[in-house]
Write a structure and sequence with these properties.
Layout (H helix, E strand, L loop, with lengths): L15 H24 L2 E5 L1 H9 L8 E5 L8 H6 L2 H4 L8 E4 H4 L3 H9 L2 E4 L8 H11 L3 E4 L17 H8 L5 E8 L1 H4 L13 E6 L3 E2 L1 H9 L4 H32 L2
Parallel strand pairs: 1-7, 2-5, 2-6, 3-4
Antiparallel strand pairs: 6-7, 6-8
Helix pairs in contact: 8-11
């Protein structure tokens, strides 16, 4: 059964068993994703060192991190596995948290365990930016953690432009320390795992992933607060800035992917 309203999947104080199970889930998922993404398909990664560097610095607790990515397939989270080293991604101190649609991911008890242990946070589409899942992600950022966001709000089935949802704007504007934002754009993940039945992973497909330059929105946020902008105005301006950067990154990814496809 799907999660009932008010039901939650994370323990208040995770114990040793929970942490071990979480690390095992994350490591297993990483290895499977790495195998399917990088060893039986052809992936070109551009500027992955940018994300690697930012994630490795998380243990210093100097700055929280938000990655934003387009969403074309249910397997998109595997892109992060392809970008990062095993010891980096599978460290519980550095592993990302990511919002996931509760009506899709959390529909049965076994899925609840798997996705929660894998640090997927249930959010309910249509419930807005102020809901428990977003509060949870904000708390992780306030403790200098890492949250990965798909601001399109769901899998983009046809590749058409979708205005970004404002949840990412809320996380940035309300975080006690303005997070660094790293944009990521990928092309071809829906070839590896199509969005139509039969949902069987494919092999020998080409994927292009590009990591953009980090966005430091600290001065912009401080300026908006000094101008006494409303929370809604701040969320919109921040989200618009990220969306503009992602549109530019998309164009670069498309050019690189066209070259990738031409290669034998």
């Amino acid at each position: 059964m799907p999660l009932e309203k008010g039901q939650w999947v994370f323990p208040c104080k995770p114990g040793v068993i929970w942490k071990i199970a979480s690390q095992a889930t994350i490591c297993t998922t990483y290895l499977l994703s790495k195998f399917w993404l990088c060893w039986v398909n052809q992936v070109q990664l551009h500027h992955k060192e940018i994300l690697q560097e930012q994630v490795e610095q998380l243990h210093l607790k100097k700055r929280p991190l938000i990655t934003v990515s387009n969403h074309t397939s249910s397997a998109d989270d595997g892109v992060l596995c392809g970008l990062l080293k095993f010891k980096t991604f599978c460290s519980l101190k550095r592993t990302r948290w990511t919002p996931g649609a509760s009506e899709v991911a959390f529909v049965a008890k076994r899925y609840n365990y798997y996705f929660s242990l894998g640090r997927v946070v249930p959010v309910l589409r249509g419930d807005g930016v102020y809901q428990r899942g977003m509060d949870f992600c904000l708390d992780k950022l306030n403790h200098c953690g890492w949250t990965n966001i798909y601001p399109e709000g769901g899998v983009n089935m046809n590749g058409e432009f979708i205005r970004f949802k404002w949840g990412v704007g809320r996380l940035i504007s309300e975080c006690t320390m303005v997070p660094l934002v790293v944009p990521v754009w990928h092309i071809g993940m829906d070839d590896i795992l199509p969005n139509y039945p039969p949902y069987i992973p494919r092999t020998n497909k080409k994927v292009t992933v590009i990591v953009g330059q980090p966005m430091d929105l600290k001065e912009s946020v401080e300026k908006m607060k000094a101008e006494l902008l409303s929370p809604l105005e701040m969320r919109k301006k921040i989200t618009d800035a990220i969306q503009e950067e992602m549109i530019l990154l998309k164009a670069k990814a498309e050019a690189l992917h066209a070259l990738h496809v031409q290669q034998r």
